[in-house]
Amino acid sequence: MSYRPREFWERRLSEHFDLRGTGETGLSLAYNEACYTLRREVLERALREADVPLAGAKVLDVGCGTGFFMAFYVARGAEVTGLDLTAASVDRLAAAFPAARFVLADVSDGVPEGPYAVVNAFDVLYHITDDARWEQAVRNLARVVSPNGILLVTDLFSTLGTLADHNVVRTLARYRAVLESEGLSIVALHPTHVLLNRELGPFRPLNRLPSLLLRLDRALLRMGLGQGASHNKLMIARARR
Length: 241
Description:
The model has no long low-confidence stretch (mean pLDDT 97). The chain is of the alpha/beta class. Helices cover 37% and strands 22% of the residues.
C-alpha cells in the first residue's frame, strides 16, 4: 500500500494516543518514554547554548502529535501554536491546552503566519517522502522564523535515503542549500540518541531495558558519540538579524 500521510497518521494516533503513536509502536511505552526523555534533555541543552529564552516567546510546534513538545514549551511560558496533519492530534490537544492555538494543516501546503522565535519540527520532515513537498515544507518553516530566531529540525542528515515507506532521509547539504536561500544558517548539530531510537541488531533484547539504555545514552552523548549516519540529530538553524 502506498504511503498516504494523513490516513497513516490519523490511524496511528487514533490507535496510540501516547508516545508510542509518535515513536516506536512496536516497543513498550517505557521505551518510548526513555527516548522522549532524552529528546527533551538534548532540546533543553540546545536552547541554553543558543541562548533562547522561552518565557513569552512565540513558538510553532510542527507535527504536534500527542503533545510532548507542546507541554514542554507551555510549561516554560511560551505562547505556542500547534500544527498537525491530523484531527486526532488537533482535537485532543486543543482540549488539553486551551491557552494554545492549533491549526489542522499539512506543513508542505503552508503554516500559520509568524514570526516565531522558535519553530520546532522534531521527527517530522523525514516523514515527507516527496522531495518537492519536503523542500516546500522547509521553505514554509524558514519563512516564519523571526529575525535571530531559530528553526529546530531532527533528521539523520545522511545519505541513507529511503528507510521505509514513510521515512526518507535528506543530507545536511540539502538542508543547508534550502535554508541559506531563505536567510537561515545552520549553527549547530546535536545527536539526540546513540542506542535508543535505532535498530540494535543482535543487541535488540536491550530494548527491554529502556532505563539502562537511557543511562548509557546520556553517558555516550557526553563522550561525543552519536555522529554516525544512522544516528538522529537535532539541527539548529538561525535566521539573520
